[in-house]
Specification:
This protein is α+β, with helices and mostly antiparallel strands. It has a domain of 120 residues. Helix content is 36%, strand content 21%. The chain contains four helices and eight strands; from the N terminus they run H-H-E-E-E-E-E-E-H-E-E-H. Strands 1, 2, 3, 4, 5, 6, 7 and 8 form an eight-stranded antiparallel sheet that branches. A hairpin with a 4-residue loop joins strand 1 and strand 2. The N and C termini lie far apart (85 Å).
Length: 187
């Protein structure tokens, strides 16, 4: 009888440890699944890569597909809309080259947690970038976004202009050792 009692005292903590471990693991997996659904925007990295392409080639690419091999490593990516659309981490990026030295970029959240992330619109040149931010656009609106909308159209979509970024000031200040300046006037 005492040997059975000793065996019970040995198996009880092991079983309790196993149950608690399985519960903690299930909570961790559920949280990891939720985190994978949340859109993560890479607008600043896309802008950086497009500017880097411009520095190397003297103009912006005709499509995002052209970034491969020049700025991006070549790997399997699924481009849409003739190479101008790209889905990455639950964001849909829609790029439009307006001219050799001007482009626009939409970043629209997708996926089940899309309402938790903002939509972005960028209109950029090598010297400056104007940015607008707003709530997630409806999925059916994605097909109808204008590549070069007016400020009024952006307002109708609920996007609000953010502070302008001046790249020219960054390049000058970087060569002088001074911290970069970001204009906050919004124009």
């Amino acid at each position: 009888m005492i040997s059975r009692l000793k065996l019970t005292f040995l198996l009880m903590p092991a079983a309790l440890f196993l149950v608690v471990g399985a519960y903690v693991y299930s909570l961790w997996m559920a949280e990891k699944g939720k985190a994978a659904e949340v859109p993560v925007d890479s607008v600043s990295m896309m802008m950086r890569d497009l500017l880097r392409f411009h520095e190397k080639r003297g103009g912006f690419p005709a499509s995002l597909k052209d970034l491969e091999g020049v700025v991006w490593d070549r790997k399997e990516r699924e481009f849409m809309a003739g190479g101008k659309g790209f889905l990455h981490r639950n964001y849909y990026y829609l790029y439009s080259r307006i001219g050799d030295h001007r482009y626009s970029l939409w970043a629209i959240p997708t996926g089940p947690s899309r309402d938790e992330a903002p939509s972005w619109f960028l209109a950029s040149t090598p010297e400056a970038c104007r940015r607008w931010k707003g709530a997630a656009l409806p999925i059916e609106q994605i097909q109808r976004v204008n590549s070069d909308p007016s400020v009024t159209q952006l307002g109708v979509l609920g996007l609000i202009e953010q502070s302008r970024i001046n790249f020219g000031d960054r390049r000058k200040s970087a060569s002088n050792g001074i911290a970069p300046f970001v204009e906050t006037s919004g124009r």
